[in-house]
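Hi there, hope your week has been kind to you so far. Please have a think about how the structure follows from the sequence. I've dropped the whole record in just underneath, so have a look:

_____
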Amino acid sequence: MVMSPSLWKGAEIPEWLGPPFFFFGLRSPEADFESARAVIVPAPYDGTTTFRSGTREGPRAILAASRELELYDEETETEAFRQGIATMDELAVNVASPREMVNHVRQAGEYVLAAGKLPVLLGGEHLLSLGMIEALGARHGTFTILHLDAHADLRCSYQGSPYSNACVMYQALQHASLVQVGIRAITREEHQLVGERGIPCFLAYHLWRDPSLWERVVPLLGPRVYISVDLDVFDPSFMPAVGTPEPGGLAWYDVLRLLRQVCSQKQVLGFDVMELLPHPPHVATDIMAARLVYKLLTYIFLDNQH
């Protein structure tokens, strides 16, 4: 597949980020597209944000923060970067509609998948996950979305449009099955839809009240999984820099334990980390988001690192 140049932003990289504009600041050979196992796709768009805007700055903040991380993972005693992590240019956002931006992400996803790489989407608003989900559906057929989020995102439309970050998982149901974890903001209509469709939905309150429920998540997933993380799934006491924070969120190690189980027992087709809203100079949340990306890559690559 040949990528259209119009998909790429081609913007000048700001001085504060500095060259190279790659995850971890990697250079050849680890950052080479041809040999990389994973490819980062930055998508700086927040055109349908429902509360605070600014998540369009999330991808650059994650990439910048990644350069401050250690390459060695102490938990697994591995260095995932040696498997190769390429970073594409930012996707262009001069689009006429949210649907057109979703199409941009889908085309980028198709390009990465056609090359046999693991796609990693950085947002930006959560609606963009739909583009990657559509690309995966076209290539792989049936799979399950593991959706970690404070919000159900199951509205059939929001403010008159079906293409909103409040509707992304409703649209995604056309392409995959769904398991939700960490939900603590849901409408009556979304709750009814969960029941009607039989969608496994693990509310944050229930996970707090009965921690044994965590063990029920992985068996509900199909053999092939796409992981979609809205950073507001975490508690705002340590992840406040998101578009729509909600109290009572999940803890870091609880989420990591789940993700490691998923990556060890299922085929992970790709993942996204969305909705970071940077608040300079407080970079702890940027570091946390970048660490989450590297943790997921570490868990996915674990079988080939020793």
User: Anything to note?
Assistant: Residues 1-6, 10-20 have pLDDT under 50 and may be disordered. The chain has one domain: 5-304. The first helix runs from residue 58 to 66.
